[in-house]
Amino acid sequence: MKHFATWCAALLACVIFSSYAFRSADTNKPTLTIAESKVTVKVDAIGIEQLKSAKLSAVQEVSKNYFVTIPGTGPVGPVEPWDPIICDGMTHSQLWADISTRYNNWRNSAAGAAAQQWANQTCQPYMICFANCGLAVLYAIEPTNWKCNIAQWYGEVAKRGSLEAVLVP
């Protein structure tokens, strides 16, 4: 009887642990921190092309938790010292550089690795948006899994006209 109880306990443990392995991929999406929130981004044809080619697109907040893509994938225009100060003593180029640095730091963190893992498991890009002083940039963490059909996903987004992203202020 002692061995039967041990066997039953082991079987129960296997059932419980295996149930976690078969959860839907969406429930494994990296959790948001307190500062992060979900936002909706309206995507037009230019935004889709920017995301496909550069893996990023400038976005503009039009209302709370609602953004639209705008043309631009980096600072354009005059260079220092003609670059005007926009916010918090930073110029447009400095804001772009700040967002780029924050994105690269996030990308090389455990959260960035979790986002890449989620993208590979679901065959969907993980969309994350970094914002600073009215400038916001939407990034696409595309799956590296060769089995994934990213073109199909972008086609579905183009039909819907919007996507969800995580906003990091």
Topology readout:
Layout: H1 2-21, E1 37-42, H2 45-54, E2 56-63, E3 66-70, E4 85-87, E5 90-91, H3 92-107, H4 110-122, E6 126-132, E7 135-141, H5 150-160, E8 162-168
Parallel strand pairs: 1-3, 6-8
Antiparallel strand pairs: 1-8, 2-3, 2-7, 4-5, 6-7
Condensed summary:
Helix content is 41%, strand content 27%. With 169 residues, it is an alpha+beta fold. The strands form 2 sheets. The chain has a 6-stranded mixed barrel, surrounded by 4 helices.
List keywords for this structure.
single chain; 169 residues; alpha+beta; six-stranded mixed beta barrel; 5 helices; 41% helix; 27% strand; disordered N terminus
Task: Write a structural description.
- The chain has 169 residues and is α+β, with helices and mostly antiparallel strands.
- The protein has one domain.
- Helices cover 41% and strands 27% of the residues.
- It contains five helices and eight strands.
- It has a six-stranded mixed barrel with strand order 1-3-2-7-6-8, surrounded by four helices. A two-stranded antiparallel sheet has the order 4-5.
- It is globular and about 45 Å long.
